[in-house]
Design goal:
Blueprint: H1 2-30, H2 41-47, H3 50-83, H4 89-99, H5 104-115, H6 120-129, H7 142-166, H8 170-178, H9 183-211, H10 215-220, H11 228-238, H12 242-269
Helix pairs in contact: 1-12, 2-12, 3-7, 3-9, 4-7, 5-7, 7-9, 8-9, 9-12, 11-12
């Protein structure tokens, strides 16, 4: 018992120094208004702000929508790569691994080059019709942010699914197919139950990352889309309201932990 405690102390101390201590400083700063002393006034001011309530709602619905879309799209793409024979399937699977190392703003810039106001799609439209502007103006809306998040986070669902599919006993699939089972029934009765733990892992990761995503919202230029991370930035850097920024940061942490905990409970009850 003593030896286990000795081995546990170094990582616990590292965790406390790298995470718990800065979090404690943020919580302490959130209770210290600019007027001095210790009070809950920063929380009252932030909670009474319409901008904060809209940012909270935008953060939650974008994260939930991105997670749901990534689960559906990631499962379908992983299914095709793993079970549908086509040339280059192995190269595509390796590209998924490489894609995970890309920064989020790089994917957003690629979408801007394609669908931005001065992007390729709008440029081709203007050249073909002679119009002053193109029809693709959705990247600066919440739907553009959602598209960028789904594009970037889907491989985070695909990677654990592809790993799970490599462990799947293909004999079950072959037997079911030989007995006349349709592909949809095979996926529902054989593949999906085996993929549930990987789906839960990928979905949980996407949910946490989407709740705290900053670069995608910033680089899309969606001025009408404010999330909790961007609100922390605007309060701390643009408004110099450090207690308010710390309040939003604390709420962001609580929302992330709460939604992730709820996701884990639902996943366990679903058998993942």
């Amino acid at each position: 018992m003593a030896s286990r405690l000795t081995w546990a102390l170094p990582p616990a101390a590292l965790l406390a120094a790298a995470f718990l201590y800065p979090l404690t400083l943020v919580v302490r700063q959130s209770l210290r208004p600019d007027t001095g002393g210790t009070s809950l006034k920063p929380y009252d001011d932030v909670f009474a702000s319409l901008v904060f309530r809209e940012a909270l709602w935008t953060t939650v619905w974008l994260a939930l929508a991105a997670t749901a879309c990534c689960l559906v799209l990631g499962f379908f793409l992983a299914l095709v790569i793993a079970f549908v024979p086509f040339p280059g399937a192995r190269a595509v699977a390796r590209f998924v691994d490489v894609f995970l190392s890309f920064p989020s703003f790089l994917v957003t810039l690629a979408l801007l080059f394609l669908y931005g106001s001065a992007g390729m799609a709008n440029g081709l439209w203007r050249d073909a019709t002679g119009a002053a502007t193109g029809p693709f103006q959705f990247l600066t809306t919440p739907w553009g942010v959602l598209l960028a998040e789904v594009t970037y986070f889907t491989p985070f669902v695909m990677r654990p699914l592809l790993a799970a599919f490599t462990q799947l006993d293909t004999a079950q699939v072959e037997v079911a197919a030989s007995l006349g089972a349709r592909p949809a029934r095979i996926v529902r009765r054989i593949v999906l139950p085996e993929a549930l733990p990987a789906l839960a892992a990928g979905g949980g990761l996407v949910l946490v990352l989407a709740l705290n995503e900053f670069g995608i919202v910033l680089f899309t230029g969606a001025k009408g889309v404010t999330t909790l991370p961007t609100l922390v930035y605007s309060k701390a850097i643009l408004e110099s309201d450090y207690p308010g920024a710390c309040v939003v940061a604390v709420v962001n942490v609580l929302v992330s932990v709460g939604l992730y905990g709820l996701y884990r409970v639902v996943s366990r009850r679903a058998g993942a």
